Amino acid sequence: MARKTARPGRTLALLFLAIAIMFGGIAFAGTWKPELGLDLRGGTEISMTAENSEGGSVPKESLDEAKAIIDQRVNGSGITGGRVTTEGNDVIKVSIPGTGKVQQKTAERVRQTAKLRFRLVACSPQKQCGSADASGSMVQDPSTGTVPGTSPRAPFAGETASSSETASASDKASDKASESADPSASPSASAKPEKQNDNAVVKVDDAIKFMRNVPQEWATAYSSFTCPAPGAEPAEDIPGKPLLTCDEDGVPYLLTPAVIEGTEVDEASYGIPQQQANYVVTLDFKSKGNKAFADTTGAIAGSGEQFAIVLDGKVISAPTAESRISGGAQISGDFTQATAAALANNLKYGSLPLDFPEDGIQTRVIGPSLAGNQLSAGLWAGLIGLILVVIFSVLYYRAMSIVVVGSLIVAGAGTYGMILLLSETAGVTLDLPGVAGLIVGIGITADSFIILYERMRDDMREGRSMRVAVDTAWVRARNTCLASDGVSFLAAFVLYVFATNEVKGFAFMLGLTTLIDVLVFFWFTHPMTKLMAGWGFFNKGHVLSGMDKRAIGTVDAPKGTTLVGGKA
Where exactly are the transmembrane stretches of this chain (predicted)? Predict the structure, then answer.
């Protein structure tokens, strides 16, 4: 079998093409400066005072659980630079880098009390109160997969799934909804399925009875109910009571008492399944919630009745079910990546075990925790280290230092480009520990070409020409480099997983520079060195090449020894 011919020129061309595409994306995004962390730039601080919904002092376990949930909302990846701490017995403080629109949206998400509950739809524009079918059967349109006259919403899909969807805002016109009603009105206690604790969910059977036989008081309240103005306070969501509320499109609903609390959600994620083209959201419940979910979907399977997901008193999705779903559920619909991610996060991190009243939430702008000269000092340290590496390589490797300098430039460009892209797409921020990780990356890159060059010199001392020594040295240098970078990456990974948020920035940047070093070593250092080995200036051992007899230590070699440019 013929040996595959190496093409270093093509490898270098592909590398530069990849870098050009990356910076093209950066130019399209219009972002040329990375987001800085709290210690270098400052940001927004939110102070939230907790209350126990059941009265009394705030349990420490509940405060720690709420802190963990909020931390996942703010800094789930550990690379956005957000910090969540507790203060005293009832205060959670959230610090978010920056003060722009992205930070404001994050602050709004943090301020949400995020009480997540699951209820059944008793009344809606598509369903008259007390009837499973308001205006004929809810027939699926074969061409669109949706109910005629409705907007795309998200159905559950377990063993099988319905494509029926909830009504759009344009369909809510009703003669009975022309007058406003108090969203928090409670017609009478008799409307509840049975006397119970209002702060607890009800049995599935009781919710089904309410849905299919809506008490007159609640039917009257729904007929006169109009949705509050955008931005107004939503209806109070009391789990043991029915709820009059709306979705984000202004569609009004009368919902049964809650059958599942959001704390029963065990896992939620989003993605595009195999052989599908649209995003879906998947979720799994804990044992208690899983039984209630299976009983609920079994009761409404195939009937067109809806199962509402309610966040902070507002309907965020109202799917149907075609069969009993006893395992993981899947929500599909007209999702974009952003809306699927938002719903998954609401499901996964939605419910807090404590209440955070609006009057106990304060927001203020904070300055950097470090003096401004700290960043300058870190950048100067990195620049001085880089200059020293270049000076050493020029003095020791002479013209071969072209590859050294080129490797550092390519690695620097790749690292900076990745930081910019990650800042724009994943919210990565650069703090002082991260700057330290980048500086350490300079040493990692320098190690790689030193290993290769010294292996080449060893082979050339044995009589091989430079052209041959590049290939023979590459095998051994490659293994050594991969082992060294593997250890560095493993250290970065362990720090990232187990260390506090203050150290995660260092670990992330160290891991990033380590991966880029491997790419540069394979795609630039080796092919560039191979190209130079074919030039007579280097292969014939010019005194300034860095590969002459004196440089490799064979100037006093015994007579008969093949030196640089030999026959090997």
Answer: 377-397, 402-422, 434-453, 474-499, 505-524
